[in-house]
Write a structure and sequence with these properties.
Belongs to the short-chain dehydrogenases/reductases (SDR) family. The protein is an alpha/beta fold and 269 residues long. It has 9 helices and 7 strands, in the order E-H-E-H-E-H-E-H-E-H-E-H-H-E-H-H. The chain has one domain: NAD(P)-binding Rossmann-like Domain (Rossmann fold), CATH 3.40.50.720. It has a 7-stranded parallel beta sheet with strand order 3-2-1-4-5-6-7, sandwiched between helices. The chain starts with 6 loop residues before the first strand and ends in an 11-residue tail after the last helix.
């Protein structure tokens, strides 16, 4: 896809990865409709790219707001690129989570992108060439303790991406699934950051992820897994999951110790 010809709906645009993707798209000449609950993080980009960036406030868990996005997309003359980047996570053992925590992850991470994609597909199909990009996670391929609910949503998003790609195989709409590894954003709690530090896990900057996503879109990729050794462990988990079980069991005491849930911690995309 030629990014200078792209007309984009980008969800989660005010998050760390979302802001970085927004900036990269605008710099490449794309027309971007940024979807976010809050404008503050986007304000500098809205000022810098007044002719190529506009913002719509929406909570995509509500049908009325999804319809607002559809109307905005129609108003800019249609779209040929949808990037579902909105997401929430919560590092905690399953029994530490409230039902509301679990439901929030399900609503934002899987229900909202599925429903928005369904709503925008007729517009995408009108384009000469179009793409749906779903931003998942390495945890969409590896079940990781402390992230059981989050993993469930990202496994679902990966399955949705694969099935949708096959449904659309006889159309001009491609589907790209992106699996970042740990990324330095405000979505990570202090406990999650402490776990990454303790395990000496590599953590990418949002700009690194955004650059990889832009190149994958331009190259009409089907999937993108970021980071080594994360790509290796995804393959190992598929072939020899008992070896991954063994390795993660050694980490379990640390994960249990660091996992926490505080009453004032909320889930925000």
């Amino acid at each position: 896809m030629q990014l200078r010809d792209a007309r984009v709906v980008l969800t989660g645009a005010s998050g760390g990865i979302g802001v970085a993707i927004t900036e990269a798209l605008c710099a490449a000449g794309a027309q971007v409709l940024a979807v976010a609950r809050h404008e503050q993080a986007l304000a500098p980009l809205l000022e810098r790219y007044p002719n190529s960036l506009c913002w719509v406030a929406a909570d995509l868990t509500f049908l009325s707001d999804r319809r607002k996005v559809l109307a905005a997309a129609e108003a800019i003359g249609g779209i040929n690129l949808l990037i579902n980047a909105a997401g929430v996570n919560h590092f905690a053992m399953l029994e530490q989570l409230d039902d509301s925590d679990i439901n929030a992850m399900l609503a934002v991470n899987i229900s909202a992108p599925m429903c928005l994609t369904k709503l925008l597909l007729p517009l995408l199909k009108q384009a000469d060439s179009a793409m749906v990009v779903n931003v998942g996670s390495t945890y969409g391929s590896i079940g990781y303790p402390g992230y059981a609910s989050y993993c469930a949503t990202k496994f679902a998003l990966r399955g949705f991406s694969e099935a949708l790609r096959r449904e659309l195989a006889d159309t001009r709409v491609n589907v790209l699934y992106v699996a970042p590894r740990a990324t330095r954003t405000s979505m990570n709690s202090a406990a999650a950051q402490a776990l990454n530090d303790a395990l000496k896990s590599s953590v990418d900057d949002p700009q690194t992820v955004a650059s990889a996503v832009i190149h994958a879109i331009a190259g009409d990729r089907r999937d993108l897994y970021l980071g080594w050794p994360e790509r290796f462990f995804v393959r190992l988990n598929n072939l020899l999951p008992h070896l991954v079980d063994r390795g993660l069991r050694k980490q379990l005491p640390l994960i249990r110790r660091l996992s926490e849930k505080t009453d004032n911690e909320s889930l925000k995309p």
